[in-house]
Amino acid sequence: MSYTSLGLNSAACCSLVAGRSDVTSIVKPIIDGGAGGIYNFRITETSSSQDGEALVVVYSNPALGISTVGILDGFASVLGDTTSISFASALHPLAPGFSAELALGIGFSCCTNQRSTVKVNGTTITDNAGNLDDGDAVADGSLITVGGYDDPYSTLLPGYADDHERYNLAPNIADGSTTIKFDTVNASQDDNIFLAVVRVTGEGNVCTGPNCNTIPEPGSMALVGLALAGLGGLRRKAKRA
Fold it and tell me: Pfam families per the record (predicted)?
């Protein structure tokens, strides 16, 4: 398995990069032929400079109804980045069955001084995104955290150790709104937000501008997948093998 480089996070320190590999041919036969539930995939790293990996699986299940799954990777500028997801019809977060969540993957993150701020629709939900929740030790090559399916939602404005990089967005969505806006910034300029996965009930599209007419270009949180109609998202953190 080889990775395609997603570019250098030039605004950050330390020549931080991320890569992508399409493992559909490996994962799909196992899931399609399985009984459902939890699947385990072993990842063996071939370079000591890899902090870790995130495995993202989007699957079809008609019982889940219609959802929008946005998968963005590459990197978020440490100086500040904005992404929006827009919907053709109004969102009603108090309606039965409504759900909206955000999961982040962050590399080269360690200890209390490396952290990022995340805002949703102008409200700060965390100042402590980061840390090495899924790493083995405080050392280069093991500094990664991913909001996985088995992580609880982080509380509003969690402490550093209590931020699991998985967030419930519903409380920050006004009834009747059609757009969810995300703002990120890394004041220490040394973390790499390399992944953002958004899953929201309803049908929408992912865009970067205030009028949602533009799609992100590779380099700054590049859009790699958008799935509509009967799709759900599974984000599983991958610890170092």
Answer: PEP-CTERM
